Amino acid sequence: MTDTASSSRPKVVLTRPLPTCILDEAKAAGAIDLKIWKDAERPADRDWLLRSVEGADAVLVMMSDKVDAELLDRAGPSLKIVSCMSVGYDHVDTAELKRRGIRLGHTPDVLNAAVADLVLLLILSTTRLLPNAKRTVDEGRWPQTPWAPLSFAGPSLQGKTIGFVGFGAIAQSTLLRLLPLGPTRYIYLNSSPQPFDLDNPKFAALKAGGLERLLPAYEAVQGSRISIENARDLEDLSRQSDVIVVLASLNAKTKHLIDGRCFDHMKPTAHLVNAARGPLVDTSALVSALQQGKMAGAGLDVLEGEPVIGASHPLLSDESIRDKVCLLPHMGSATLEARRGMSELAAANVLHQLGFAHLVEGRGSRLVQL
């Protein structure tokens, strides 16, 4: 048995070095023993994790770390919390955590601005045909591509309808960023019907962002009313939207929520953006819809099967559709500020649960209700 395992101090396992020193400071203060996977660029080795988690009181994991019954069995009854450095936790067996009475921490809110910025980037990249334009330059075809009246011309967002599948804080932050670009209608779907009411806490991000003040100002500038309303259902949203933005949570009910039927209802000029989780969209149906011209393009920060997405993937290899797709490597939260905030909150979740809230004074914790 190692000194760490025999120590009376709580044992914390960390599966990647963090851009914060909170846990290191807790270790230096003698509050915890800390076991860290040292390679910042490579996911923790599964065998290392299974060995290291034995007798642990807490484990702080990344999206690449699978937390299942095998890992929880190896940790044993001492494990009090699994803290994720992510908002989503589809890599965690929540039923097993609930059965064993283990808490689950995650990192919502601190990355909202970063993800909303990236959603806006994807919307503009796809509607303005950036993949095609950039590939023309990268492949040296610009000299052979003379200017034409409609070369690289995509639709403006002015007067368009934006549909949100999932209308939490990130979606609401995205809406605030879209206002200056001129869409006049925003429709949304949540897990349950929620008529738009700015005094409803469900729309707190819009209220905090000053929508009450911004809306009349932009209506005056644009000379038209801007509406925000609950769509009847996914078919209704699909039929009406010029851009569909997927920001829902992934669970058994929402896997492949965006499927062939959804694509059948879309306008052929519409674009899809997914910055939530890959399996929310049926990739085969997406490829087929693009090939058949049922939609104009897709901006994706996530994709089923990621990160094992090679050059042979049809979204990248099919010449008929690859210029319609902007695919990014799941980097929605990738600002220095957001990643630091996520790491600090993930660490604070651990220390709060282990009884060391005084070491993270001023930082709260965010636990999932299992």
From TrEMBL:
CDD domains for this protein: GDH
SUPFAM superfamilies named in the record: Formate/glycerate dehydrogenase catalytic domain-like (SSF52283), NAD(P)-binding Rossmann-fold domains (SSF51735)
One MF annotation (Gene Ontology) recorded for this entry: hydroxypyruvate reductase [NAD(P)H] activity
Any one GO CC term of the record: cytosol
Stored Pfam families: 2-Hacid_dh, 2-Hacid_dh_C
Annotated ranges, domain D-isomer specific 2-hydroxyacid dehydrogenase NAD-binding: 121-197, 231-332
Keyword tags: Oxidoreductase
Lineage top rank: taxon: Eukaryota
Location of the D-isomer specific 2-hydroxyacid dehydrogenase catalytic domain: 13-352
PANTHER family in the record: 2-HYDROXYACID DEHYDROGENASE-RELATED, GLYOXYLATE REDUCTASE_HYDROXYPYRUVATE REDUCTASE
Family to which this protein belongs: Belongs to the D-isomer specific 2-hydroxyacid dehydrogenase family.
Name assigned to this protein: Glyoxylate reductase
